[in-house]
Design brief:
alpha/beta, single chain
Length: 283
């Protein structure tokens, strides 16, 4: 009788497990499943968290906010994002200081189309908790100049304009796999300046993260995964600015089956956020 009861309980547990519908699963770089608790513990013991997102993925945005809230429970934080360009820092500060409202920010800063649903909650968290929020990205028009004419084009900028980008000359390693892969993807007629434009973004974001690090606090940065995947991009430039800096990276990937990490996604980051590919997109 006892064995029959245990068998029924086991069968019930198996049925319940089979009926679970998880939207995401976390893995370490070696493909081992890890808990959110472990991610949080690692994030609380570093200097910089590079949260690599998919810009249109609802789970990415939700977990960014949840992780930010949870880190802030125990640690002082600085927030920053690719989605805001450095020359809009003044307007962002005015909003955070209560000097302008959301409508004014909308009209004076170059906000992304999905700002309201995906990034406003992060900025409003900074507003409510008086956290610094740093607009880290190079102004897009300057990255466009680099894509056409190379880093040399930045030499024509004014002193004020140069203050919105990484110090020059920008270090650059064309052999980094991410930049090599970009050249391959773009085809044989691609200009070698294209990955340089990407590097100008990576270097500028890294520079403003580095510049705004505070003692006994954690800088949480939100960026597209391709800007920090494989420990390159922003992460590589942060190590250029300070070889001793402590960083953890998070990469977002989508898979049909989230129960195990696909081989191609190994070693993309310290933590890989695997999301069911059927999750609704925000745009």
């Amino acid at each position: 009788m006892k064995n029959s009861f245990l068998s029924i309980l086991l069968l019930f547990a198996i049925v319940i497990k089979a009926q679970e519908k998880k939207a995401y699963q976390l893995f370490d770089k070696n493909g081992k499943k890890v808990s959110y608790k472990k991610l949080l513990k690692s994030a609380e013991s570093t200097q910089v968290v590079l949260f690599g997102e998919f810009h249109n993925n609802a789970i990415s945005h939700w977990l960014e906010l949840e992780l930010t809230k949870d880190i802030a429970q125990n640690k002082a934080i600085v927030q920053g994002a690719e989605m805001l360009e450095a020359d809009n820092q003044k307007q962002l500060n005015q909003y955070l200081n209560g000097e302008i409202n959301q409508k004014k920010l909308d009209s004076t800063a170059r906000l992304w189309p999905n700002y309201k649903t995906d990034y406003k909650p992060l900025i409003d968290f900074a507003l409510e908790n008086k956290n610094p929020f740093v607009a880290t990205n190079i102004p897009r028009r300057f990255a466009s100049m680099v894509s056409k004419k190379g880093f040399e084009a930045l030499e024509t900028l004014t002193v004020e304009e140069k203050s919105w980008i990484a110090p020059q000359p920008i270090p650059y390693d064309a052999s980094l796999p991410g930049y090599v892969e970009m050249m391959k993807m773009m085809g044989e007629h691609t200009s070698p300046n294209m990955p340089k434009a990407q590097a100008s973004k990576d270097a500028t974001m890294a520079y403003f993260i580095y510049k705004n690090l505070k003692e006994n606090s954690i800088f949480i940065h939100y960026n597209g995964s391709y800007h920090s995947d494989n420990f390159e991009g922003i992460s590589w430039y942060l190590k250029v600015y300070n070889p001793e800096i402590k960083i953890i990276t998070i990469s977002t990937v989508e898979q049909k089956d989230i129960s195990k990490l696909e081989q191609e996604n190994y070693n993309k980051a310290d933590f890989i956020l695997v999301i069911d590919e059927d999750v609704t997109k925000t745009y």
